[in-house]
Structures are given as C-alpha cells and as structure tokens.
Amino acid sequence: MTILTVALKYLQGRMVASTLTAVSIALGVSLVIASVLLARGIKEGFTEGTTDYSLVVGAKGSPMQLVLSVVFRMDVATPNILYTTYRDLQEDPRVDVAVPMALGDAYQGIRYVATNSTYFAAFPWRRKTFSLSVGRFFRDDPPNTPTYEALLGAEAAIRTGLRIGDRFYEGEEMAEYPLTVVGILRPTRSADDRAIFFSLSSFWGMNEVARKMEVKPLTAVLIRPKRMSDVPSLHRELNVSPETQAVLPSGVLLTIFNVMALAEEALTMILTIVGIVVLLYVFVSMYSATMERKREIATMRALGARRAIVLSIVLLESCALAVVGGIAGLLGGHAVAYLGASLLVARGGLVANPFLFGVLQPVVLGSVILLGTLAGLLPAVLAYRTEVAENLAPLS
Amino acid sequence: MSARSAVVVRGVKKSFPLADGMSLEVLDVEHLTLPGGTCTVLRGRSGSGKTTLLNLIAGVAVPTAGTIRVDDTDIFALPEARRDRFRAEHIGYVFQTFNLLSAFSALENVMLAMMFADAVPKRRQRQRAAELLARLGLAARLSHKPPHLSRGEQQRVAIARALANSPPLILADEPCASLDARTAGEVLAAFLAVCRQEEKTLLLVSHDDAALGGADQVVDMVELNRTAAHNGTA
C-alpha cells in the first residue's frame, strides 16, 4: 500500500462527491478550452480566408458588408456597380490585376459566385492557390453566349453531393438555365470552399434583370495595384466617386479583430470567475472531506503516520481530482469546440481547425493540476495540524 | 518473559491550559514500569487519566514534565517525525471504538499500519495481514469494509492492525468496552492469546474480570495518578 493508493481509496470511498468535483473541474476546463479554441479558430479562419487583393471595390454602403459578402460570403451582397467600373480599373495604369465578381443567389445554401479565370490565376504575390481535385475550370465564355459551366468549391461539392456532369438549378424559374458541373476544387481553407463558381456571362444569362441591361452589373472588383504606394490614391479616388467605395480588407479585418478582442476580454472575465468558482468547489469538497475524517487522520497518526504523510494524502487527492477533471475537460473542450466549429461552418461561418495542439493544452492541464492541488492545500494543512489525542476520543 | 523494562514512566505530568490563563493538571505519575513481555491491566474510573497516560506512552500527546522510555528510548527526546516512525515500529494501539478506516477493507486496514513502518517488506505485507486476520478468525472477512463487519469483528481487525508491525508494546484502551459480554470475552481471549504467543508487552485498560485474571500486574489509576487522588476523581 502506498500514499497514492490511500488517497485513491479515500476518493473512491466518497465516489459521488469525488465524481461531482471532477465533473465541475471538467466543465470549467471544457469551457476554457472550447472558448479559446473557437475564438482562435474564428480568428485564424478570418486570417486564412482573407483575400490577397489590396482593395475591394463595390457600391457605396457599409465597408464591412462589402468585405464580409465578397471575401467571406457571410453577409448579403451589396448593391451592384456597373461593369464599366471594372473596365476602367483594368485600364488604369496603376492597377496590376482587377477581378470582376458578381454574387448571386444560392443552391442549397451555397452561394453563387460569378467571376472570370483571373480569380483562380496564380500570381507571385498571391498566397492562395487554386487547384482542381477533378474536372476543369469553367470557360471564360463571351457575353451573350453563356455555357452555364459550374466549378464547385470542395465543401460545396460534399454538401450538395454534385459530381462532374451533374446539371442543377434551384427554383422552377431557373429550370431553363441549369448549371453543369465541370470541375471541383481542392480545399482552400477559405470561403471559396463553400461557393459555386461560374462565368459572368452565365450569371448575366441567368439573371432576368441583367439580361435586359445594356451595361451589365457586378457586385465588386478586386484590385491589386502595381505598387503598394498606389493604394492610397486609388482608395481615395474610388471613394470620392458617388457610385463606388474602395475598402482595404485588412482594415475591415482589424475592425473585426478589435470587436472580437472586446468579446474575448468579457469572455476572459467570465472564464476567470468560472475558474474561481471551480477552485472554491474543490476547496470546499476537500475541506469538508478533511473535517469529516479528522478522527481517521488522528488514527493514522496514532498508527505512526508522519504529518507529512497525511498532508501528502490530502494533496494527492485534490491533485488526482484535478488530473481526472483536467483530462476529461480537455477532451470535452475539444468535443465542444468541434461541435461549435461544425455548427458555425454549417451556418456559413469561418473556423480554422479547432484541434490544433500547441502550448494551450499542456499549459491548461498543468495550471489545472497546480491550482487544483493548491485548492487542497488548506485542507491538507488542516490534516497536517490535526491534534491526535483530541481526535482519537470515542465519539459520543 | 523478558526481564528488562519495556516501558518506564518517570515523573510524568500532563496539564491543559485553561481560558483564564491557568492550567488544569490531569496527570501526575511518579513512576511506572512495565516489564517486557508482561500484561499490565490499568483500571480506574472515567476521568482518572487512563487514556491520557496511554496517549503519552504512545507519544501522541506530549507530557508537561517527566520522561517516558519505551524500549530504552526516551520517546520525547526524539524529533516528532522520528517519534512517529518509532511509534509505528514499536507500539501497537487498540482503541475503544476500533477507529478503523471506513473506506478500507479489513485487509487494507491492517496493511495501512505497515505502510508507516519498515517492519514488514512490501511484498509480504498482504500475506502478513491475511495471516494475522486469519489467526483472529477473520479469514473469510478480508475484503469486507468496517460497515459490513460486526463490532466484534471490527475490534479483531483493530487488534490485527496493532500487531501488524510486530511491535514489542501494545496499548489497548478498553478494547472490549463497546462489545457485548460474550463477544468481549471472545475478543479479549483471542487478544491475550496472541499477545502471549508473541511475547508482547501489553498495557490494557480494562474493567473486565477476565482481563484481570490474565494480568501479570494490575495498576490502579487512583494510586498511580496523584492528581486523580487529590481531585477525588476516584
């Protein structure tokens, strides 16, 4: 028999209280882990999913709405701008690359994104690359002769179950303009995974209003200037125009992160309070357990147990509770983070891998074990100071 | 029977502080010797200091004055941790209300005492505990926890626990007081038999005639404790 087996026996002896204490630790740890993983996942999701283009040009309105809809596909599309805006920007000597985009309806909740082949092109300055897992890219068909070829993002293909050659449309009114799947992209870890791409010509062909328009509509134009020093002047000029606004995606991302930082601060406060409550619960549990068995502690001392041994037994008990609760909390926290991430992704949110293992897990587990053990320190000291003769007296 | 003295109590006093700054003296023993391998029965009314004397000899209470030697060792000259170890190896204590640990089985209660001393090698502890319990008629109760044992069985477990490290000295504080007469007789007979077989020095607080009959010496606490005599406790 060892000190550890004695401590475990005591925990086993009050199974219900021990289980409740471990569960309370596990819930607290789960909350911390899930919150941190999800917050980090969302932040990384935004960072990974952002565009490599310097400016997003769209109709006047909310810059946040423009970036969220065009880059992250998380908001309703802003009003249209004219195709001529794209033409003008394409001819602007300061512009290196301009990409036209039109956001339309959706198929089974997957957003339609009309653009041209430039959107998928690789450039030296571009981090993001597109590659096909199967099929080919859609053709840049000329206006008025749409081919209605569709390219699916990786997740869009999984969620819709569409395969190469499948024809699809949503709503009876679109039955005349079915899209045909010609390719499926590899995952890009961005909102493009949850999009159905096709040509602008197909978009205009499917849209009754656009069909009648002489100058075709767009939702936005992505801009990459030749020199970064040209960004301010382009930004200013496009914002001075009564029809357009130009937005720096990085600026919007910063705003999102600032809002998230406020939420994280509030969350940190809540988690701190949860942590304190859990520690108090461990303390109360260990304290009452120690008070209840002062007679048994005195008996052990009378049998020859040194004060250090009874101190160690109580500390080992709280440590064991913290280890069990901490490990269960880590597992539970990852499960909650996974469920939360799945829920957010299903609702069109961006979450990077919530299962990233780093310093978080060992730091949280180490802290829980340390703090859990410390919560048992005062009860352990009480056990250490138990007066033997006083507590050996027969119970009345 | 060993000729040397297993316990020598000399000039021992014990007093407790009172709230008004005064102190209450509860024990004043001039001299007491327990010869090795003998059975001494200590008798006296409640409050005469029997349990206090046992606690002092066990080293779980500290005397206000005087010395107590157990196996030629002045136990209060030892630092506390060494005194604890000395107690684990040299003194077995049987309590009036058994004081078994409720979360532990009979076997584990006996093994627990071995954890605090190096008297029995780890690999032999389980076997030794089982043997002791079997000798006391509990071979079929090894895995039972105290709530599932009768009072007589619980006291047998407590006796086995006191003998676990083969200590030369056994202190027993009215070990049969909370048992019915028949069970008390059986338990006491088994206890005395084991102590005799293993040549233990036994200091037994008891009013039982059977215990008095098996005693090598009987000490009356009224005569031994000068404070009790003055206070008229007896």
Q: What is the rounded distance between the termini of chain B?
A: 32 Å
Number of strands of chain A: 12
Given as residue ranges, the uncertain stretches of chain A (5+ residues, pLDDT < 50) are: none
What is CATH's topology name of chain B?
A: Rossmann fold
- Structure class of chain B: alpha/beta
- What is the average of the pLDDT values of chain B? 87
**Integer count of domains of chain B:** 1
Note the main sheet of chain A: 10 strands, mixed
**Major sheet of chain B: order of its strands?**
6-7-8-3-9
Order of helices and strands of chain A: HHEHEHEEEEHEEEHHEEHEHHHHHH
Which class do the helix and strand fractions of chain A yield? alpha+beta
- Tally of individual helices of chain A: 14
**Named CATH architecture of chain B:** 3-Layer(aba) Sandwich
Description:
The complex is a heterodimer of chains A (396) and B (234). Chain A has 396 residues and is an alpha+beta fold. Chain A folds into 2 domains: 3-47 and 255-392, no CATH class; 55-247, no CATH class. Chain A has helices spanning 3-13, 15-49, 63-70, 83-91, 154-160, 200-206, 208-212, 231-240, 249-292, 294-302, 307-346, 360-375, 377-384, 388-392; strands at 55-59, 81-82, 95-107, 110-115, 132-135, 149-152, 167-168, 179-185, 195-199, 217-218, 220-225, 244-247. Chain A is elongated and about 100 Å long. The two termini of chain A are 32 Å apart. The mean pLDDT of chain A is 89. Chain B is an alpha/beta fold and 234 residues long. Chain B has a single domain (5-231), classed as Rossmann fold (3-Layer(aba) Sandwich). Chain B is 38% helix and 24% strand. Chain B contains 9 helices and 9 strands. In chain B, strands 6-7-8-3-9 form a 5-stranded parallel sheet, with helices on both faces. Chain B has a 4-stranded antiparallel sheet with strand order 2-1-4-5. In chain B, helix 6 (181-197) links the parallel strand 7 and strand 8 (201-205). In chain B, helix 3 packs across helix 4 and helix 3 (106-115) runs parallel beside helix 5. Chain A binds chain B through residues 1-3, 6, 9-10, 12-14, 295-296, 298-309, 388-389, 392-395, and chain B through 51-52, 55, 58, 60-61, 80-81, 84-85, 87-89, 93, 95-97, 99, 101-104, 108, 111-117, 125, 161, 165, 178.
